[in-house]
Amino acid sequence: MLFVLAFLSTFLLTNSCDNPTEPNDPPPGRRDYVWEVDTIDPGPGYYTYGFNLWGSAPDDVWFIGGATTRKDPIWHYDGVKWTNIVLNDFITGSGIWGFSKDNIWMGTTNNSIWHFDGVAWSKFGTYNVEGYQHVIIQSIHGIKEDEIYGVGVADNSDNTDLTRIVMKYDGIDWRFIDVPKFKEAFAQVTVDKNTSDVLILSQRRGVPGNFQHLYILKDDSLELFYTSEELRGIDRINDISVVYDDQIIYKYQNGTLQILVDLQGTDYIGRAWGRSENDFFTVNSMWRLGHYNGSDLENLYTLNASIGQMVVFKKEVFAFGTDPYQPRDFILRGKLIN
Length: 338
Known about the structure:
By secondary structure, this protein is an all-beta fold. It has no helices and 28 strands. The strands form 7 sheets. The chain has a 4-stranded antiparallel beta sheet, with no helix packed on it. Strands 2-3-4-5 form a 4-stranded antiparallel beta sheet, with no helix packed on it.
């Protein structure tokens, strides 16, 4: 049972200035990209289903997910081509985050966490929750190499029970943080660089209040922070933690949510990845990748696939999308002209 989730009592909600640009704001982001699309193709009769994307540089990008064979869930781009990386175990990769090309962490749907040291992937450990058969690490993030968080769900094959989970790496090992059991799955995690607060997005199933929920983890203590029927998810725009609720994007600042941009009435449906508040990408309606430049939202590319994740570098961007009609994945690559 795998929750690859569609994204998750307001305590603090503060409106910021409606003017999208201020004298010291970063310049508007450029839109003159050259685009190419790669197909992740394991060959006739086989397929992949991607879950996540991460990279340290344009010539070091990782794409992970599941596949029909042991050799196809993990793919690497070296600046020229995509190559499938064969592990010594049959896993489904779900969450991935790293600090450099030789220090990358990957969570799986198979009770395990893996580490890449620049040469090879190795299983770092197997982690179990008493009373549950599966541990699924759906999202990983950290701002310090000795303080990294992973979130997900523990469940049983017969769907009798499930509970949210939070894990923490302290530079030596991963451990479970003791949070009260509750029938929900944690889908996303981001550590806010300015406050070190850990933002966690969840989705509840089969319980009252089946909305999306935002939690804050401080000193290993979990608190419900924000709940909304239209809460879509959390992301990062450079060092800014953002929360998107319906067609409004908020930034997390000093323990509050402040409006970053109101996109009501546009094609925006979710997500926010970018270099600055005036240069970030979105998922728009009709399978389109959008871009906000501080003034307006524009559709840049129609991928004809459900866009799942994006990584943004100085002059290049990568986004993966899943074909809605057959089991295959695409990687959209954009590069600024000059």
